[in-house]
Design goal:
157 residues; 6-stranded antiparallel sheet; 1 helix; globular
Amino acid sequence: MSPRNRWTTALLGFVILALAACQQRAAYSHYEPVSLNGWNREDTVKFTFGPVTESNSFRKTLGLRASLDYPFTNLSLIVEQEVMPSGTVKCDTLDISLIDIDGSPKGKGVNHYQYDIPLNSISLLAGETLYVSIRHNMKRENLPGISDIGLTLEEQP
C-alpha cells in the first residue's frame, strides 16, 4: 500500500471513529398518541423504562407533537417520575412556550410541530425501573391539537 493510500485509510478510519463517538445512544425512545378529540386532563400518558441491566446515567428528553389546532401559546405539564424498587419520587411542573414572539411555532415541522424539551438527567442502578407519567395542567379540560407525547433516554458517557 502506498503512503498516500495509508494516509487516506487512516484519515477515513479516524473520521468514522469520531462520528461514532459523537453519536448518542438512545436507550429508550417511545411516543404515545393522544386522542384526536383532544387531550383530556385525566388522560395521563405513562412510560416505563427498565429494569436496567447495569448502572448508568441517562439524559431525558420529553417529546411533544402539536398542530396549529392547539389554541394556546404555552403548555403546562406535570411530570411525575418514580424509581423502583427504591421508591424515589420526583414531580415537576413544566411551562413550555410553544410560540415565539413573532407568533411562529418554536417546534420543527410544517403542519405538525416537534418540540424536544430537555428534562433533568437521572442515574439508575442495576435492576431499577423508571416510571414516568405526564398530564397537562391547563385550565381547559380538553386540549385539541396535541397528537403525541414521547420520552427519550440517552446514555451519558
